[in-house]
Amino acid sequence: MTSWDPEQYRQFASERAQPFHDLLGLLRPGAIRRAVDLGCGPGELTALAAQRLRITEMVGVDHSPEMLSAASAHTSAGIRFEHGDIGRWTSAGDHDLVLAAASLQWVPDHPAVLAAWTAALAPGGQLAVQVPANSHAPTHMVATRVAHREPHRSAFGEAGPPSDPVADNVLAPDEYARLLFDLGYVDIHVHLRVYPHLLPSTRHAVEWVKGTTLTRFRNTLTPEQYERFLADYEHDLLAAMGDRSPCFFPFSRILFVARRPDERAGAAQ
Hints:
It contains 13 helices and seven strands.
């Protein structure tokens, strides 16, 4: 099982939160009785969404025991958290909102997953998803190069280094738009946005990805092997990006929101 460090992930919390706020801002206003946050992480943003959107019943789902332990602090009468695989999650057409922020990239076959999430939505229900689109960034490309270089390549064994889930799984914005149309959605909004973060230094970019994309290496290597990998990664990343203070760190993300047609409203007209 993949191990996550909530405190490492919480670094740069405000920068990570901005796309979440933007995603919520794309939603159509209205009462939300039942919602789910798939890949809820440490739970702060789940609770924020429940409060901001006045959600009656919000469930956060995550596969990481560490994240769920941190999220438990945000449990309340209307908010609870549970263990689950977001790639297999669905429900019987009884949700007003399915939300997934920076989590869908970790699972393959997005057409099948989004079809299962769509089945969970009631008529008029909304889907809101945000995924990184930065596999082309130095932080990701350098990680792949270092992982395939000795001695690290051998340290991963016969299976080799784990691949980049963003490169493997995330679709192009127009592909998501067509997929949402084929799934029967209306009011489709798909945005590719570059977030212009300014970090204190290039080394802070290493801290950023230690909480996200580098977890796939940390969970595969021994602590000693990972520390050696991390040292080589930092050396090569500083060579690629420059040892800068401050460091401009653009981060590309895809945000999409869409609504299932409300057949009840159509029948009433």
